[in-house]
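During the practical work, I worked with a single protein chain and the tokens that describe its fold, as given directly below.
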Amino acid sequence: MQQFFEIIPVVLFFLAYYVKGYSIDVLGHTFETGNIYTATGVLMAATAVHLLITFLATKKLEKRLVLLAIVIFVTGGLTLVLHNNKFIMWKPTLFNWALAIAFIVAPYFMAKKTLMEKMLGGQLELPANIWHKLNRLWIANFIIVGGLNLIVAYSFSESFWVSYKLYSSIGFTLIITIITGILIAPHLKNLDNK
């Protein structure tokens, strides 16, 4: 569910990019909607608000959410300071590939447990081979999503990439969630029979 709330800043980024003709005043500076730089600023501000609301509601922040915010603030900051859209375009790739690396190395530091097992092991009881299959699935997802982002960023227009960013965020999240559910579902029935 948290991943769906994380899409809200992406939706606001999309709207700030595509809705033209509005201006946003921040600290004496006026920003016009309808460009990548204002959209990047909106993404950064929405991410900061999301972090604050999450912390106030839960009194903690997931490492993944903190990593996402850091990548957004760094790539967004570079985009705004250097006035170069390629930095924000790299954000999805850097974040997804960082997660892939985390999922790859975690079992070596957590007594062969996967990150999925660490995150969901208290709620689900699955055989070790299913945890490892889920881990490989999510690693493949992160690598593919990161790679596709670069292909779109460098092969298509900026506006196409902005649309792709929104729709792929929603689409890939739904697809990986459904596949994960399909892998887990047979084992949930086994738990009910115990």
